[in-house]
Design brief:
Blueprint: H1 12-23, H2 25-28, E1 34-36, E2 41-43, H3 46-49, H4 51-61, E3 64-70, H5 74-83, E4 86-97, H6 98-110, E5 117-118, H7 127-139, H8 147-150, E6 157-163, E7 170-177, E8 189-197, H9 206-219, E9 226-231, H10 236-244, E10 248-260
Parallel strand pairs: 2-3, 8-9
Antiparallel strand pairs: 1-2, 3-10, 4-9, 4-10, 5-6, 6-7, 7-8
Amino acid sequence: MTDTSPGLYGSDGQRRLQAAALAGAGAAREIPGAVFAARMAGTDDPDRLGWDRIAATLRDEGAITFRMIPTDACPEVERRLAEIGCVITWWDVFDGPRDTVRATCDALLASPGDDLVPAGPQACTDPGLLEQVQAFMAGRGVAPYPAQVLSGQTGPAFLAVLTDPADGSIAATAFTYFPYNRHSPHHATAWAGLVAVRDDMRGRGVGIRVNALALRQAVGDLGADRVQEFARTTNVASCRMIERCGLRLRADLRSGIAQPAGARSFTR
């Protein structure tokens, strides 16, 4: 049965994961090793969180994300997951310090190069617009976050939306928030992502601009010390966009999503 709770979006499986993540948000903000990953459960220290808990999450919910795992620890994570019939898809980690990100994004945003209009903060809390944003992301292969997270109800966050002045339609999106709790060495690091660009806007620097808007807010009003983004190694365009915004590849860290073997990939 589809979970029709307000703010959720996507397939039945995605909605179930989002509902579970929202229900467990308080615990994720307090339990050592846990991460509030918004669209599913998460961990940035699997040994500290506990492999029994991880196995139970995979059994009951079907997915969990591993964040900021040392590269040399990834084979052990894969081995432990294989023991319970699960696999993990890894993403590259990019990150950058506040001052570098601020300077880079300020330079990028100084000359927009297009006539797209950023939606104001008030607009980005409107339930109607949030649902449009979720549909926009999903239509471009990006698994959306619950509206409660996108609107900042679950903690400091910023949703960047660029609109087409011709008709007010959404042209591009990006998002940033703080997933890590006080026990994590990454607690002052903001995550950014959910970058989606309308097909007819591709190749015009729109993705870089909307991403820069989110990153700039992360190190500005949100007060992040660092910002991170994830991308598949094979997604060359995304990797280049992230690096253009001042983030650099961390060869010492990986992030990924674990699922039962044979499960459909959760997001692009």
